[in-house]
Amino acid sequence: MREDKCIINNYIKFKKMKTKIWSLTTRISHWLLALGFTIAYFTGENEWQMNYHYAFGALAGGILFFRIIYGFIGSKYSRFRDFPMSISQQIEFLKNYFSKNTYVGHNPLASIVMISMMFVGVFTAFTGYLWATETSQFLGFTLTEKMVEESHEIGAKLFLILVFAHLAGILADTIFHRKTGTLASIFTGYKNVETEPENSNMLQKIFSIFWLGIPMFLAYLAFGLPVREGENEREQKDDDEWESLLYPDKNSERRPINITLKMAKNSTVDAASSASSNRNIEPTIAVSGDNYSQPNYQDNQYYATQNQFEDDEHEKNEHKREHHHNNEYHKKRHHDEDNDD
Ligand code: HEM
Ligand code: HEM
Fold this sequence. Notes:
This protein is mainly alpha-helical and 341 residues long. It folds into 2 domains: 2-235, Fumarate Reductase Cytochrome B subunit (Up-down Bundle), CATH 1.20.950; 254-340, no CATH class. It is 61% helix and 5% strand. The protein has 11 helices and 6 strands. β2 (137-138) and β3 form a beta hairpin. Residues 37, 40-41, 44-45, 53-54, 57-58, 60-61, 121, 124-125, 128-129, 131-132, 152-153, 156, 159, 222, 225, 231-234 line the site of one protoporphyrin IX containing FE. One protoporphyrin IX containing FE binds next to α2, α3, α5, α6 and α9.
């Protein structure tokens, strides 16, 4: 009986009539949430963006937390009890998807996606907070770092999947139930239906101030959370990969591979010759790990060989320059003396 009543209540009469479905706060919070989620999702991997990640993540989490409360005390179409979610409603909805009968508030499938988004979003933001603050105890439970990390990452991925499902649902609705004007409703608040409008009472209006205000304050506080140095795991992994190339034997005392460049004794390197293909250099590259009996890092063979060469060149050039400078000086002096005479 209740089901029938629900469907009849939500039945749309396609007249040229608009009814207010979403309050202004619902719409503002929706777009703040979309912004918060999007920025949080794309800033979670870079250490230098972490403060923004915390702030926008907290904004999204805070908005969803208040949306959950609004699900109990909110206006019609926003209350959970108005969400048609029973199995029979799901079946009914899917069977008649392409007919004109549809729902004013969230349809049965959308209701599941919306509620899931609310709880998954709050969960994700909360686990992010636990991760950022390195909390290891919560409600008497001991939390390992791995547990918190995995929860946050899984929550974020699940949230992303739900957002895609949400967007797919809106797209399908826009194509197959175009006349309802669902897409436009999240901007204007109105759907093209004739039914009972949403009317927020005083309590709901006061609540709206907290719904928008507190998440913004949380975002401000979260922005100031200290970011741990080297926090980003992925960056760390990249560093580790590079390190494992340089230090192939993990058990060794971080001895790097020795790269020995030996120059032939009679080599001459200058700008012109280095550009030409017949350079008189015989580079020999010797690569050794820890097990080879090659000289190690301390021997500085690479530096010695190359630096020696560079030093010689440098010295020669310095010498030439000094010589040239002295000549010039003497020439000038003789010239001045001649003039004096
Ligand atoms: C990117 C992140 C987004 C998130 C997390 C998100 C989340 C939500 C949530 C939680 C609701 C329920 C509102 C309520 O009952 O108070 C909702 C409704 C809605 N959203 Fe989004 N949204 C996102 C993006 C978008 C975008 C990009 C569009 C439009 C192109 C959109 C269009 C809508 C519409 C039309 C509704 C009302 C649906 C209905 O009447 O059943 N959303 N969204
Ligand atoms: C609902 C909002 C949020 C979303 C969608 C989100 C999403 C993400 C994503 C995708 C990552 C990258 C995970 C990876 O490396 O695979 C991440 C990492 C992280 N997030 Fe969030 N996050 C949210 C909220 C928060 C909040 C509110 C905080 C803290 C106040 C937070 C703290 C962190 C921390 C500490 C990391 C780890 C960075 C690292 O060391 O790799 N997140 N988040």
